[in-house]
Amino acid sequence: MNYFKFQPLLKQTLWGGDKIIPFKHLSTVMENVGESWEISGVKDNETIAAGDGRSLNQLVRDMKGRLVGEANYQRFGDEFPLLIKFIDARQDLSIQVHPTDEIAHRQGRERGKTEMWYVMDSEPDAKLYNGLKLQITPEQYKQMVADDTICDALAQYSVKEGDCFFIPAGRIHAIGAGCFLVEIQQTSDVTYRIYDFKRKDKDGNYRQLHTQEASESINYTVLDDYRTHYQPQTNESQLLVECPYFNTAVYDLTEAMTIDYSELDSFVILIGMKGEGTLTIDGETVAFSAGETILVPASAQEVRTEGTIKFLETYVLS
């Protein structure tokens, strides 16, 4: 196979909206679907290759460097290194932070989590939190959580389609109501809940907070701006994020383009954002449209796109 599509894992949540369902072109309408895990190698939550039947990590075990790249296989072994999600928030999500790999190891975890968000067609009043706007100490952080003022220390952004936020491990963040976005992250389930707006679960209990672990994980540096700034372009690659865990670019195409991957020692994930067209991967053609995610193996030499389509491209350079 020159490409793989996967059966998404739809995650029902209390805060989820219904945008994912029509976006996925499914006929069954389900309420409160908050996340669609498009490509996942997370234990007990692996996506299955459509028409193939193998899980993502089974594909890695079978194909090794031909799938993920030789250097990536040496680095990550049989676990696929990235998790791709669509997230649709009907309510504010909890405020969270993720540790770095180093801090995660000290806390007895396998790895930390760095991620990014690319905002899609969200509600007009959609907002999110990303980073600190006030200089605080770990002790002040704990007190602000206790007295329900932690949001006063956070930078909040109104968002629209095309906005991008890089979230390195250690940066406080939260997705707000009305946001619809793509999340690209390390394969990791380490999340420390900082604050949940005093909400209770169905049994009347507050959800667990991880105040101590979070205080050890937060990067307390304050920046002027946490938004990723770029100049939108048509018919060319526009780099958004470059970090040790993934590189991500956006393509907004109105004409055919050939992308040369012959020198790239990595898989490539293409995430459809808007429009439709086709991809021809080493001579094999597949339809590609908004809401679809395709994994291109590292062995692929080139991808030719046709149609009017906007998509993200992400890969890992070891």
Give the low-pLDDT segments: 26-30
Rg, alpha carbons: 20 Å
The tally of strands reads 22
Order of helices and strands: EEHEEEEHHHEEHEEHEEEEEHEEEEEEE
Shape: globular
Number of distinct helices = 7
Q: What value does the average pLDDT take?
A: 94
Q: What composes the largest sheet?
A: 9 strands, antiparallel
Task: Walk me through the structure.
14% of the residues lie in helices and 39% in strands. It is mainly β and 318 residues long. Helix 6 packs antiparallel against helix 7. The longest helix has 9 residues.
Q: Can you lay out the helices and strands and say which pair or pack?
A:
Elements: E1 4-7, E2 9-17, H1 20-23, E3 33-39, E4 41-42, E5 45-46, E6 48-49, H2 56-63, H3 65-68, H4 70-76, E7 82-88, E8 95-97, H5 101-106, E9 115-119, E10 127-132, H6 138-146, E11 154-158, E12 164-167, E13 173-175, E14 180-186, E15 192-195, H7 211-217, E16 237-242, E17 247-253, E18 257-260, E19 268-281, E20 284-289, E21 293-296, E22 302-315
Antiparallel strand pairs: 1-6, 1-21, 2-3, 3-7, 4-5, 7-14, 8-15, 9-12, 9-14, 10-11, 10-13, 16-17, 17-22, 18-22, 19-20, 19-21, 19-22
Helix pairs in contact: 6-7
Features of the shown structure:
mainly beta; 9-stranded antiparallel β-sheet; 22 strands; 7 helices; 318 residues
In short:
The chain is mainly beta.
